[in-house]
From TrEMBL, chain A:
Residues 30-138 form the Aldehyde oxidase/xanthine dehydrogenase a/b hammerhead domain. This is Xanthine dehydrogenase family protein molybdopterin-binding subunit. The keyword Oxidoreductase applies. Keywords: Molybdenum, Oxidoreductase. Signal peptide: none annotated.
From TrEMBL, chain B:
InterPro entries: 2Fe-2S-bd, 2Fe-2S-bd_dom_sf, 2Fe-2S_ferredoxin-like_sf, 2Fe-2S_ferredoxin-type, 2Fe2S_fd_BS, Beta-grasp_dom_sf, Diverse_Oxidoreductases. It comes from the Bacteria. Keywords: 2Fe-2S, Iron, Iron-sulfur, Metal-binding, Oxidoreductase. This is (2Fe-2S)-binding protein. The lineage of its organism: Bacteria, Pseudomonadati, Pseudomonadota, Alphaproteobacteria, Rhodospirillales. It comes from Dongia sedimenti.
């Protein structure tokens, strides 16, 4: 069925756009919802993992004989139990090595062995009895240090890809990327004002409140089950089955309720280990990470080092933009520097632009996706320079941005030409917003930033079953991480023309549906939602056919309107409309169950832009920054459930505020993480924040029948720069390193006052 | 390890259990009593996902031992609704979309109820400080604060 998308801007919605209660609400407020660690199986064992205390060490031997002799220990697993079955797939091999260290431990916290025992205390004792013989190697944890010629090498044979000519010497640089168009050097020659700055950002963690947890049960017949908190249980099934040499169809994976992910639960860590332990012990094994393990051994995002140079003419037109981005992605290839380079200038309409990215390895945990992976740091650097350049040109930063903003038809900095996009509307709304005109006091400043994210479509498979009572069950394979079941029900109800409370969405296991991509890339409401709409259209076709059968008229003489089958015109016959409920009631005698299906790989995810405004106040005595007011304006295409759209805007903004002000991975000279807990890795708490105001704009995405754009990720892109720009405005010092923690800000203020004194 | 026998009251029900000396109340609730509404987010008292009340006082159940609970009255999320009637806070959290993933929700509800039990007319600042021991990574707290303020207003009207 072709997409009938032209209607999306004029269509009057009955259900979509309302704010009903979510279907899983009662379960979540009563403690009844079952998350990763909440499952039990008869006879289950406790699995625990032994981790390297060293950031970089050769593993010369592992002796588990004493642990195996301890009463209650049922299995010990090392890399020897996970033979390489990756068949030349380099990315999968990296997953295997990250799951369990092989020749070397590559970061502090890298798993080296695991044990399954009848109780947690026995498992803890057993870990202490496993002897690992390490040969300690020199380590590196900073991206700039890792790129130096004499840096300790993680992979002594690694030659950088993407360089011309190819380097002769090995290094920690995995690959070079370059994006852009035009002639940057010629552009800078036309520039009358140039601002050039260097920036650093520290690694941050997604900080989901639920640690990774799973319950594995594998039998000697090669069949298994896995209960796991994940953003994508089909990905977990395929990855684990490949690593363990199991048939995909013999491993049934069920996604538990998921206690946050933000990208961090888009890969596997403990799952293959739990399966291997269970297979060896022939008992169910539950593995639950501690918070310390989450910090040390899952995937934070990259730390970065970025140079940005932007030039403009005196009338405020940008003539060239150039950026060099260096991201370390932990001990494996794949930092999101490519996305950083692609998104850095995506919000501007530029004739001459270039962004070069270097993917670097160092002795830290393998990074995982974190909400718009790679974009926030690049945006921080570019939007900081934009703000400074606007001031030097003598324009209001918002007017400077409006003058240079990307719009429909702009050749984007990463390649494609934009269709209808919502950047200018967010900027114009921002300028009209009361926040923008509110007065500021002493030590207070206002900053803003614009941000962009691509969004993703991907594979979705949906089944829809019409009950004989006229209610509808929607079966989806996308874990619901923030209310998506409500959106699926809304779109299904809208399309079928029935009330929201007659539809129930269920997240099904891997045995029930075809492959569904991970809940990532802001794809679920867009792509799985579109699959729901298409499955509803499939069901409608069948409902119409049943009505035709009952009326004894041709199928194509029946149309569907407002939840009813109707004869297409007076020629078709004179029958009163039949409701979905009436048709469904007759299903058993008109051909059996009525169901709709849709499976596809969605294209056409519309990009999403946002503008953020931040007011902050700095205490010059302590260097403490308080966020006073914050406003998010973002294009949602069409807000299916506006409350949860606002929630995405607010949540992303606050994660960005944490990134800007508090959050950082702190490494000692010994290469060990010094703040692996929520006390010292401080995410924003309730008393740190004001209300987060939101403005939803709806510029329909032509790639979706209702115009929906993904909204989950863009909201974390602008806050780093918006906060930094507001702090800079408050104190008159440009902060180029994140987080802007009190000691760092205080040092900058002291330096500024010393310079002022010297000038006097 | 020898087990310790404990007699206590949980959500009004007399409850006896045995536990080992090193088990936290959270371990006992989750692993021995099947009350998995309290969540372990950190085990260091920083996230508040395991919040319960002990003799009416808001506590992180990961920071007290199960063996210490003899004679105590414990309140958990499982006891918040009465029968099929949700507590007003539970209703308002759903209505305001004050949860996204929901892992922190039981802890927030226990902490918010504890606040309203002591202060039926809190200011926004008081709500924010009362809930500062509970981490939420999804919502940015905005809708949680609104839900609690709205509940307080409604309960005052009732």
């Amino acid at each position: 069925m072709p997409l009938d998308n032209a209607e999306s801007s004029t269509r009057k919605y009955k259900v979509v756009g309302t704010r009903p209660n979510r279907p899983d609400g009662v379960d979540k407020v009563t403690g009844r919802a079952r998350f990763g660690a909440d499952a039990v199986a008869p006879g289950q064992l406790v699995g625990l993992i032994l981790r390297s205390p060293h950031p970089h060490a050769k593993i010369k031997g592992i002796d588990a004989s004493k642990a195996l002799k301890l009463a209650g220990v049922k299995a010990v697993v090392t890399s020897a139990d996970l033979p390489d079955k990756t068949d030349g797939d380099a990315m999968l091999y990296d997953v295997l090595v990250n799951v369990m260290a092989r020749e070397k431990a590559l970061y502090q916290g890298h798993a080296v062995a695991a044990v399954a025992a009848t109780s947690a205390s026995i498992a803890r004792q057993a870990l202490k009895l496993i002897k690992v013989d390490y040969e300690i190697l020199p380590h590196v944890t900073d991206v700039d240090e890792a790129m130096k010629p004499n840096a300790p090498l993680l992979y002594p044979k690694m030659i950088t890809d993407g360089m011309d000519p190819k380097p002769k010497k090995p290094s920690n640089v995995v690959r070079r990327y370059e994006f852009g168009h035009g002639d940057v050097e010629a552009g800078f020659k036309k520039a009358e004002i140039i601002v050039e700055r260097s920036f650093k950002t520290e690694a941050t963690h997604q900080g989901y409140i639920e640690p990774h947890a799973c319950l594995a049960n594998v039998g000697p017949d090669g069949q298994g089950e896995l209960w796991v908190c994940t953003q994508g249980h089909f990905m977990v099934r395929d990855t684990c089955a490949r690593l363990l040499g199991m048939d995909f169809s013999k491993l049934r994976v069920t996604a538990s309720e998921i206690g946050g992910g933000f990208g961090g639960k888009t890969t596997v860590f403990i799952e293959p280990i739990a399966l291997a332990l269970s297979r060896k012990a022939n008992r169910p094994v539950k593995v639950v990470m501690s918070r310390e393990e989450v910090f040390k051994a899952t995937g934070p995002t990259s730390s970065s080092s970025i140079d940005v140079k932007i030039g403009a003419t005196k009338d405020g037109r940008i003539v060239a933009g150039d950026a060099t981005l260096r991201y370390q992605g932990g001990a494996f290839a794949g930092s999101p520097v490519e996305f950083g380079a692609m998104t850095a200038f995506a919000q501007y309409d530029l004739d001459n632009v270039r962004a070069v990215g270097f993917d670097v390895v160092c002795n830290r945990p393998k990074q995982a996706a974190y909400r718009a992976p790679g974009a926030p740091m690049a945006n921080f650097a570019v939007e900081s320079v934009i703000e400074e350049l606007a001031h030097k040109v003598g324009m209001e930063p918002i007017d400077f941005r409006i003058k240079n903003a990307a719009r429909e038809g702009t050749h984007s900095s990463y390649g494609p030409v934009y269709g209808p996009i919502g950047l200018l509307p967010t900027l114009q709304k921002a300028r009209e917003h009361p926040h923008f005109k509110a007065p500021l006091g002493k030590n207070q400043g206002r900053g803003m930033a614009c941000g962009f994210w691509f969004n993703f479509g991907g594979q979705s498979c949906v089944s829809m079953n019409i009950g004989v009572d006229g209610t509808v069950g929607v079966t989806v394979g996308s874990p619901d991480i923030g209310g998506s079941r409500a959106s699926m029900c809304l779109m299904t109800a809208e399309e079928l023309g029935i009330p929201y409370d007659k539809v129930r969405a269920v997240v099904a296991d891997t045995g029930t549906l075809g492959y569904n991509d991970v809940t990532d890339g802001s794809r679920t409401t867009f792509a799985t939602g579109m699959a729901c709409i298409m499955a509803a259209r499939d069901a409608i076709k069948k409902l119409c056919a049943r009505a035709a059968q009952i009326w004894g008229i041709p199928e194509d003489a029946v149309v569907w309107e407002n939840g009813h089958a109707k004869p297409a015109g007076s020629n078709a016959g004179n029958f009163p409309p039949m409701s979905l409920k009436e048709i469904a009631a007759q299903a058993p005698s008109t051909g059996g169950p009525i169901a709709g299906h849709h499976e596809f790989s969605a294209d056409g995810a519309g990009v999403s832009f946002a503008t953020h405004i931040c007011d902050s106040e700095v205490d010059p005595e302590t260097g403490f920054t308080k966020i006073l007011r914050y406003t998010v304006l973002q294009d949602a295409g069409k807000a299916v459930h506006p409350s949860y759209v606002e929630g995405q805007f607010q949540g992303g903004a606050v994660q960005g505020i944490g990134w800007a002000l508090n959050e950082e991975y702190i490494y000692g000279k010994d290469g060990r993480l010094q703040n692996a807990g929520f006390l010292d890795y401080r995410i924003p708490v309730c008393s740190d924040l004001p209300m987060i105001d939101t403005v939803i704009l709806e510029i329909p995405n032509p790639g979706h029948p209702y115009g929906v754009r993904g909204v989950g990720e863009t909201s974390i892109v602008p806050p780093l720069a918006a906060v930094a720009n507001s702090v800079s405005a408050a104190v008159g010092v440009r902060m180029t390193e994140l987080p802007i923690s009190p000691p760092k800000l205080l040092a900058a203020l002291e330096k500024q006052s010393a310079m002022k004194k010297a000038a006097e | 390890m020898s087990s310790i026998k404990v007699s206590t009251t949980i959500n009004g029900d007399p409850t006896e259990y045995v536990c080992e000396a090193d088990e936290t109340l959270l371990d006992v609730l989750r692993n021995r009593l099947g009350l998995t509404g309290a969540k372990e987010g950190c085990s260091t008292g920083d996230c508040g996902a395991c919040s319960v009340t002990i003799d009416g006082r808001l506590t992180c159940s990961c920071l007290v031992l199960g063996a210490e609970m003899d004679g105590a009255e414990i309140g958990t999320i499982e006891g918040m609704a009465s029968g099929e009637k949700l507590h007003p806070l539970q209703k308002k959290f759903i209505e305001h979309a004050a949860l996204q993933c929901g892992i922190c929700t039981p802890g927030f509800l226990i902490a918010a109820k504890s606040l309203l039990d002591h202060n039926p007319k809190p200011t926004e600042t008081e709500v924010r400080f009362a809930l500062a021991g509970n981490l939420c990574r999804c919502t940015g707290y905005d809708k949680i604060v609104r839900a609690v303020m709205d509940t307080a207003a409604e309960m005052r009207r009732a």
